[in-house]
Write a structure and sequence with these properties.
Structural class: mainly alpha
Oligomer: single chain
CATH superfamily: Fumarase/aspartase (C-terminal domain)
Radius of gyration: 12 Å
Helix content: 55-70%
CATH topology: Ribonucleotide Reductase Protein R1, domain 1
Distance between the termini: 26 Å
Number of domains: 1
CATH class: Mainly Alpha
Strand content: under 5%
Largest sheet: none
Length: 44
């Protein structure tokens, strides 16, 4: 996870783009596994 975050920050891209570029996931896998609405549930 840290590798993905560092790459995204360094290159000014999204976590999704970095994870795909590093070969960890496909576009479809990322969308299945990372759901933004689950990360913010209950905030606000």
């Amino acid at each position: 996870a840290a590798e993905i975050a560092k790459k995204a920050h360094k290159e000014g891209t999204t976590l999704k783009q970095a994870a795909i570029a590093l070969g960890y996931v496909t576009d479809e896998q990322f969308d299945e596994w990372v759901r933004a609405e689950d990360m913010v549930h209950g905030l606000g």
